[in-house]
Amino acid sequence: MATSSLTKDFQEEMFNTVFHEMIEYLQGSVDIEEDASIPTATLITGVNMPDHTGVFRSLAERLRAQVTAHVAVLEAASCATVQATVRTMVRQLTAAGEPLSPDVPVVDEDEEDDCLLDVPDQTSRQRRAPATMPALVAHYEAAQETVASPKKGSPRKRARTAPQRRPLVVVWRDLEAFQPRVLQDLVLICSQYRSRLPISFVFGVSTCASAVHRLLPQHVSARLSLHKFHSQLATHCLAEMIDKVLLSPSMPFRLGGRALRLLLDIFLYHDFSVNNFISAYKFCMLSHFLWSPASALCCEPNQLEERVEELTGAQVAGLRALPSVRAYLDDLEQEERHTLQHDGVFKEWVLHMAPKLHSKHEELLVGLRCLFALTKRLPGALLGKQFREAYNLALLHALPERDEYKRTFQLLSMLSRQELTATLEHALEAVSGSGSALSTVLRTQLDRVRAVDDRPTPVSAEESSQQRRLVADTLKQATSRQSLRESLQSMGAARNARLNPYETLRSALLAELDEHLRGLIVQPSKWPFNECVVFDDVSLVRRRLVGAPRSSVQTALADPAKYLQCTCCQLGDAASIRPTMPDLCIVYKLHLECGRLINLFDWMQAFRAVVGASDDDQTIQARFAHCVAELQFLGFIKSTQRKTDHVARLTWGSC
Amino acid sequence: MNSAGRRTRKDSGSGDNSSRTMRTRQDSTIKDINGVLSVRFLDDADALEKICCISKTAPKMSRVGELLRNSQHLISHRAETPMSVADPDSESEPESPPAQPNAALTELNSAQLEVEDTVRGTAVFGFQRCHRRSHLRRVAEEFAQKSPVKTSAVDIKLPGTPRRGCSGLPASIGSGRRGGRRPVSRTVDDRNRSRSRSRSPPPARSRSRSKSRSRSRSPPPPQRNGRTPSTPKSAAGRTPQTPRGRASAALPTKTPQTVRRKVKLRLSKLKQEDIAVSDDDDDSDVSPLEDSSEDEYKAPLEEEEDDDEESEEEDEEGEEEEQTSTVPPAAVRGRGGAPRRRPELEPAAVSAEDYFSLHSAGGPTSNHTLSRLSEPRLSGAALRALLDARPTDHAAERAALLTDLEIMFPHWLAAVSHGFNILLHGLGSKRDVLERLRRQHLRERLHMVVSGYHPSVTPRQLLLTLLEEALDVPAPPSKLEAQLEAVERRLAAPGAPALFLLVHSIDGPMMRAEKMQYVLARLAQLPRVHLLASADHINSPLVWDQHKLAQFNFLWFDATTLLPYTEETSYENSLLVRQTADLALSSLRHVFKSLTPNARGIFILLAKNQVERASDKTFDGMPLSELYQRCRDAFLVSSQVALRAQLTEFRDHKLIRTRQSHDGVEQLTVPLEAALISEFLASCEDS
C-alpha cells in the first residue's frame, strides 16, 4: 500500500534512539562477571498494544543484526507452562545458527511418532535435540567454539576474544500477560545458568515499570539487574506520521477535516495505535479511489494532462456537477459560464485549475505553520498544542473568521519587542524550508523590528514642563481620593494614546502579516475541484471502522420497515406492534414489556393475540418457538431454572 | 513509473484486456501518490478482476467508482439509512429524522381522537380500550374453544382483569393499553415519575390503589366529568390520573366528603358553561386537590398544544385501519419503570436506572406452564415442517435486501484484497449472504467455510482441516502452535494462493473461546488470508480486545437480511423444542459395538436394573458395591479394580454417570430415559 513503506521507515526511525541505547546496554551485558544477576532491559512501551508487534519485530531484527544471533521472542499465548516456555525459548535460541528453509517443517520430539508414520523421506526433516536448558548450554558452547575456532591464535589472543561471547537475548513481549508463576520459575532457572550462559532479558512492559515488581517477588527480582528504557510516545509517533505522510507534498490525496477528526478521535480516545490510524487512513484512500469519480484527477501534477485528455463526456459532466465547481461557476459571469459549458474549454480550465489544488495545500500549510509558530508562545494554546489540531481546525472552518484567529492577533499586538522578535524568529524558522513569499515577508519584518527604536519618543521640554504643571494642578485640585484617581487615569490614557515608534511598527507589521495569512489560509472546501483530492465522507468511514452491530440489530427488530422498506409495517409510534411485522420483531417487542423473568406460556398467548388467528395453534406455536430460539441465539434471553417454563431476560430498559 | 502508466493508458485505449488494464491502472495511480514505493496498491490482482466484471467496458478506475457509487446510491435508501440514523452523530442524512416518541405517540392518539368522534365522550381511549379488549377477548375465546386443555378466560388474563401482580404477558398488553389510554400528552418520563411515586408506598397502599383502579374502571357517573375547574379546554382529555388511592391519601381530612362533592359539582357546572366539553370523561375522577398540584403536569400541557397542532395536520385516511391493527404500546410494565421506547435504539441512551429498576424486584409473572398446551414441546422435525408449510412474510423485501448486499460483493473483495477483513452484522441469518458470495466469486479460489454456530468446531479441528484439505500439507503437526506456524509457513511461500476464510457466526458458542479467537486473529493477520465473517450475538464485540481487533482489521458492514436463523438455531438447545434422543441412542449403539463381551454384560446389567426400577421415585442410581456383587455373580469381572477400569471407559464415553449419594456411596446411572434404554435393550437382544 502507498503508505506502508513510508510508515515503516518512519517507525524504525522513531525507535532508533531507544533501540540504540538498549543494544549498547545488552552488548555491555556480556562483560558482566559471572554469577551476577541477569541484566534486564525493561522497555516501557505504552498501552498502544496493536503497535507492539511491529516494535518487537524490528527490535528482534536489530538485535539479530547487531548484537547476537541468539534471540528469542516469547509471547504469553505460547507460554502457558514452564515446560512450554523453556521449549519455545530454547528452540528459538538454538535455531539462530542454522539456516532454516521455510518449507521444511520442524519436528518436535513429542511429535516424532505421528510424523514418522506418514512421511516417506525423513531426510528432509530435521531432527532436533530435546529443547532443554542443558541442550542449550551444549549448543551454545558448540556454537562459540565454531566461532572461535577459525582464530586459532595464541591462548592470550583467545582469552581476549573470550569476552566477545555473544549474549543470549530473551525478549518477553507484554510481560503483564505472562503467568507470574511461569515468569518467576524461568527467571530462577535462567539465573542458575547465568554462569554458563550469558543470558539477558528484555521485558516489554506496557503499563509502568512497577509492574515488574508486582509480578516478581523480591527473591526473584533480586536475580535481575533492571534497567529502564522508555519508548517513544504514541502521540509523538502520530505527529511525525501526520507530518511525514499525510502532509507530505508528494501525496496528492488529502483527508478532509471531518474525516481527519474522526481518525484522530479514534486514536486519542480509543486505542492510541498508530498502526490502526494508518489502517484507517488506508481505508479512506481506498474508498476515495473506489467510490469517488472525481478521484480520476487525484494524481501528480505532471500526469494531470494525460488524465484530463482521457476524461469521457460523462466524467466531465460529473466534474462539472461537483458542488465546489458549481459554486465557483455560479460566481462567474454569464458568458464565461457559457463558454465553460463546452467540454474542450472546460478541460482546459480543469488543467488550469487542478494543479492549483496542490499549490493551495502547500500555501495553506505554510500559512498554518507560520500561524501555529506565532501562537505557540501565546498563553492559552489557541490553536491547540499540536500542529495537527491547528491543521484540523483549518480544514473544518474558515480559520481567519474564527475567534481563535482574532484572539491570536490581539495577543500578538501586546507583545514587547523581545517577545515579538522571538516569535517572528520562530515563525520564520517554521516556514523557511518552504521557500514561499511569506518567509521573505517575515525576514524583512524581523529586520524592521530589530532596527526600530522602542524608546519612547523624546518628549520636548515644553511639553514636559506643561505636563508637570498639569500634574501639579490636578494634585492640588483633587479633593477626594476618587477624583485624584480619575484624573490620574485620564492623564495616563492620554499619554498611552500616543504610540512609540515600536508600537506603530508592531501594528503595521501585524496588519501586514494578517493580510498575508488570510491570503494563504483558505479552507480546502472552498477550492474548486477539491473533491478530486479531498476525501471527507465521514459517515462512511465511521460506519466501516466503528462498527455498531448492536444498534443495527435493534433498529431492525424495533422497526423492520426501515430495512424492509415495506408499507405494511410502517410504525406511527416506535413502540407499537403490527401483526404484519416479521414474527421475530413481534416476539422481541412483546418481550420488551416484561421484567426479568418471562413466562413462556403467557408470552406465546400475547404473540397469538397479536398475530391473530390466521394460523392454527400448532403453527403459531412453531413460529413462536422458532422466534424464541432466535432471540436466544441473539443473546436477548436465556433459559433459567428459577421458575418452570420461564426464560430470563438479558437486556434491560427499552432494548 | 511514468512509462508504465503511459503504456497502460494505451492499453485502455484498445480496451481489449480491460481487467488487466484496470489493475495496472490502479497500480499506477498509487505509484503516483507515493513517489518511491515498492508495495503495490493492489497486491492481489485477481481479486480486482471481480470488480472489473461489473465494469468490463470501463477502462477507468473512476468508472468503477461511478458504477459502484450508483449502486451504492441505489441501496443507500434501503440499507444504509437506518444505520446512519442510528449513528449518534453522523453528519448529514436528514432524510429520516428520528421521530420524537412523544410526538409520535400524541400524533397517533390524536388521530384516533379525530376519527372516533362518535364515541368521543368516553374520551378517546375508552373506546380504544373497549375495542382492543373485545378483540383480545375474541382471540382468547377462539383459542379456548380450540384448545383441548381447559383454559378459562380468566386464565388468559384478559386485559380487563384488574389484577396486576399475577398477570403474565397478556396482562402486560392490558397494562400497556392502560398506558395508552392515558392522556396523550403525558411524557414518558412523567408517566414514569408518577408511577414510581405511586409504587413507592408499602404494599398495603398499593393494594388499595389497585382496588381504586378497579373501581375507576367502571364507567364513571356522568355528573363527575369536566369537574376540573382550572383545566383548560385542551387538557380535557389529558386530566392527570394519578391513582385514586394516592389522591385520597393526600386529601385533607377536615373537609367532609359531602361538602367536597358539592363544591365539585358547582365547579363543574361553572366549567361546563365555560367550555362546552362533551360528557363522560373517563379520566375525570380527580379530586380538586389534584388540580392544585397541577404544576407537575406542566410539561404535558405544552405537549398537548403541540399535539393539537399536529392533529390538525393529520390526514385521516388510513387511520381507521391503523387503529385496529396497531397494538398500542404497553407503557411500562409493572415495576420496570423503564421509559418505553426511544425512536432510535441506541444502547448508549439506556439509562442505568433501568437496570436497577429491572433487578430491584422479583418479576410477578404468572404460574402458567407450557403443560397447558396440547403439545408443550414440539419436536425439531415437526417444527421445521410447520414452518416450511407456511409462506414467509415479506419475501420480496427480504430478497431485495439480499440483492442489495450482492451489489456490495465486489466492494468487499476489493477491500479484502487490501488487507482488510470483512465483518457482517445486522439482524437475520447472514449465511445466505456469505454462501452467495462464495458461489458467485470464490468458486475458483481457495476458500474454506467455518460454521461457527456448530457446537463442535474447535481450533485444532479448524487448523487441521485448513492444513489437510485446503493447503495440502501431508502430515500436519498436532500441536496448535505448530499448526499455526505450519499455516504461516505454507502461506508465506512464494506462489502460495490467497485463502478466503468464510466464517459464519464468528461469535458462535464455540467460537467465543479465547483460543479460537487467537487462532482466527493470527490467521486474519496473514497477508494472504482474507477473512469474511458474520457476527450475530448482540454482545459479540466483547469477544475481541484491542489487540485482536487490530489484528482482525475489520471493516464493518451492515448486512441486515431479516432471514430466519434456521440453520444456526438448529444446534441450540432450544427452550421450546423437544430434545430428541436419536443422537444419544445412536452414539450409544456405536460405542456399545466396540465393547468387549464382558463390558457389554456390565452395561446391560446396569441398564436393565435402571429400567426395572424406572417407576421407583426414590431410585437414584445403582450403588457400586451392588453392581460389583452382581457382576461377580454373573462372572463378568473378577475384581473391583477390573470393574472400575470398565466403568472409567463407560464414563469417558458418557455412557454412565456417577453420583455420590449423601452417605458417600457411589451411584451409577445411565443418563437416558427409561423408554430409550428399553428400546436399546430390545435391539441388543435382537442382534
From TrEMBL, chain A:
Annotated keywords: DNA replication, DNA-binding, Nucleus, Phosphoprotein
Homology family: Belongs to the ORC3 family.
Pfam family, one: WHD_ORC
Membrane spanning stretches: none
Annotated Origin recognition complex subunit 3 insertion domain residues: 308-537
GO cellular component: DNA replication preinitiation complex; nuclear origin of replication recognition complex; nuclear pre-replicative complex
UniProt domain Origin recognition complex subunit 3 N-terminal: residue ranges: 7-297
Keyword Ion transport in record: no
GO molecular function, one term: DNA replication origin binding
Subunit structure: Component of ORC, a complex composed of at least 6 subunits: ORC1, ORC2, ORC3, ORC4, ORC5 and ORC6. ORC is regulated in a cell-cycle dependent manner. It is sequentially assembled at the exit from anaphase of mitosis and disassembled as cells enter S phase.
Domain of life: Eukaryota
Intracellular or extracellular location(s): Nucleus
Coarse class of the protein's main subcellular location: nucleus
Protein name (Swiss-Prot/TrEMBL): Origin recognition complex subunit 3
Tagged with keyword DNA-binding: yes
Database matches in PANTHER family: ORIGIN RECOGNITION COMPLEX SUBUNIT 3
A single GO BP: DNA replication initiation
Regions annotated as coiled coil: none
Domain Origin recognition complex subunit 3 winged helix C-terminal: 550-616
Function: Component of the origin recognition complex (ORC) that binds origins of replication. DNA-binding is ATP-dependent. The specific DNA sequences that define origins of replication have not been identified yet. ORC is required to assemble the pre-replication complex necessary to initiate DNA replication. Binds histone H3 and H4 trimethylation marks H3K9me3, H3K27me3 and H4K20me3.
